[in-house]
UniProtKB/TrEMBL annotation:
A Pfam family that the UniProt record links to this protein: tRNA-synt_2
Keywords carried by this UniProt record: Aminoacyl-tRNA synthetase, ATP-binding, Cytoplasm, Ligase, Nucleotide-binding, Protein biosynthesis
Enzyme class: ligase
Residue intervals of the Aminoacyl-transfer RNA synthetases class-II family profile domain: 134-470
Superkingdom of the source species: Bacteria
Oligomer and partners: Homodimer.
GO BP annotations, alphabetical order: asparaginyl-tRNA aminoacylation
Protein name: Asparagine--tRNA ligase
Record-listed E.C. numbers: 6.1.1.22
Catalytic activity: tRNA(Asn) + L-asparagine + ATP = L-asparaginyl-tRNA(Asn) + AMP + diphosphate + H(+)
């Protein structure tokens, strides 16, 4: 006798056979019908208990949240709402759930707010919504690795602990082995990091890009996919202190090749979930439709969830220079009527989400890739154009979200890179190894970064990024 996943049983044509299934009780009604779920699918399996021949002490222990094993024959269901059901011959309680305790949790069968679910993040994956989100997240993750593997990229694990700040933003979590109540000091009263574990100041990484660049210079095409950290005190629906980044780097690749890859990559992974997560996407889409009914017309989503995903996979991405985009925005109705929160006046403005969404949703009506940004608003490692004022940067813009991908052709010329680092006060001594990659066989190379949670947010239609990662880390919150 084999244990079988509910997802497989609900699809199988092999009826009138005996199966063993293990899962958690979602509902138990009339002392007869168990709704069982094992996490493999959104749908429950109905298990029909012969209550006349089941000991009463067993029936009393079949409570919501309990883990059980049932053995029985799979047959066509006599009732409505399911194709098949199990006629239970044996039942075993694997883990009990006290009904009085269950009432205090989100396991009780009623609607709970997303905020309430966040307070019990260890249990929320047992709800339909979070089961669906996390299955979609898992499939997206698999598709990322599958895509890059098929394209001949090598997966590189870059350091979590680092001495460099790839973005130059300074919003980094410090790592130390010091006793914080007895910090060693230098003669001038500063903390003596030479006595710390690594002998220098270290932080949690904000990006694996710089190390991935170094590996692209030997392996050709690489990608990282790992956790990154930002000590940004932002309590918003778009920010996390710990999140995952996908960062490919390619040698002998210019900005055009970088834009080609980003478009192909995004279409591939969104197509993958459209093809492999239909039940979960349908559930999440219906959830959003119900949510929209309580909103004013103007605040409702212009596209349903799967339509929005197909909007990305079925449209060519429009490529527009930053300079052209600024002109479009300056002359737009919302800008002229000062409807934007940030009115566009001059070239050089840092575009906000409202501007990016206007370009995608109102003006071009398709995904947009902006390129050739002002050097002043971009990072030191981006390749300077011949005009001396723009860099070979690109951002991929999505509806409803704005920037999804940020990338660039990297500055391969040692002298230009050093000048930019000096201008932005980036310590050459700290990045001596990064400069080395420009001394020994430098070449045109490019890459981009995609925040994985932002992609999961888009793919599931959720509105708060804290709801697309298992245990969110945010200001004043490191629970679980």
């Amino acid at each position: 006798m084999r244990d079988t996943k509910i997802a497989d049983l609900l699809q199988t044509e092999h009826l009138l056979q005996e199966y063993t299934v293990k899962g958690w009780v979602r509902a138990f009604r009339s002392n007869r019908f168990i709704a069982l779920n094992d996490g493999s699918t959104l749908h429950n399996l109905q298990c029909v208990v012969d209550f006349d021949n089941t000991p009463e002490e067993v029936l009393k222990r079949i409570n919501i949240g309990a883990a059980i094993a049932v053995k029985g024959e799979l047959k066509e269901s006599e009732g409505k709402g399911q194709r098949v059901e199990i006629d239970v011959k044996e039942i075993e309680i694997l883990g009990e759930a006290n009904p009085d305790e269950v009432k205090k949790t989100i396991l009780q069968p009623k609607r709970h707010s997303l905020e309430k679910l966040r307070e019990q993040a260890h249990l929320r994956v047992r709800t339909n919504t979070f089961g669906a989100i996390m299955r979609v997240r898992s499939k997206l993750s698999y598709a990322v690795h599958q895509y890059f593997n098929q394209k001949g990229f090598y997966y590189v694990n870059t350091p979590i602990i680092t001495g460099s700040d790839a973005e130059g933003a300074g919003e980094m979590f410090k790592v130390t082995n010091f006793n914080l109540e007895d910090l060693p000091k230098t003669e001038d009263g500063k903390i003596d990091f030479k006595q710390d574990f690594f002998g220098k100041e270290t932080n949690l990484t904000v990006s694996g890009q710089l190390e991935a660049e170094a590996y692209a210079m030997g392996l050709g095409q690489v990608y990282t996919f790992g956790p990154t950290f930002r000590a940004e005190n932002s309590n918003t629906s778009r920010h996390l202190a710990e999140f995952w980044m996908i960062e490919p780097e390619m040698a002998f690749c210019d900005l055009d090749g970088n834009m080609d890859l980003a478009e192909e990559f995004i279409k591939y992974i969104l197509n993958y979930v459209l093809e492999n997560c239909d039940n979960d996407l349908e559930f999440l889409e219906n959830r959003l439709i119900q949510e929209d009914k309580s909103k004013p017309e103007k605040d409702r989503a212009p596209m349903q969830l799967r339509e929005k995903l197909r909007f990305i996979t079925e449209n060519n991405f429009k490529r527009v220079s930053y300079t052209e985009a600024i002109e479009i925005l300056r002359n737009s109705k919302p800008n002229k009527k000062k409807k934007f929160d940030y009115v566009i006046e001059d070239w050089g403005a840092d575009l906000q989400s409202e501007h990016e969404r206007y370009l995608v949703e109102k003006h071009f009506k398709c995904p947009v890739i902006l390129f050739d940004y002002p050097a002043d608003i971009k990072a030191f490692y981006m390749r300077l154009n011949e005009d001396g004022k723009t860099v070979r940067a690109m951002d991929v813009l999505f509806p409803g979200i704005g920037e999804m991908v940020g990338g660039s052709q990297r500055e391969e010329r040692l002298d230009v890179l050093q000048a930019k680092m000096k201008e932005l006060d980036v310590d050459e001594k700290e990045l001596w190894w990064y400069l080395d990659t420009r001394k020994f066989g430098t070449c045109v190379h490019s890459g981009f970064g995609l925040g994985f949670e932002r992609l999961v947010l888009f793919a599931t239609g959720m509105s708060n990024i804290r709801d697309v990662i298992p245990f969110p880390r945010t200001p004043k919150n490191a629970e679980f």
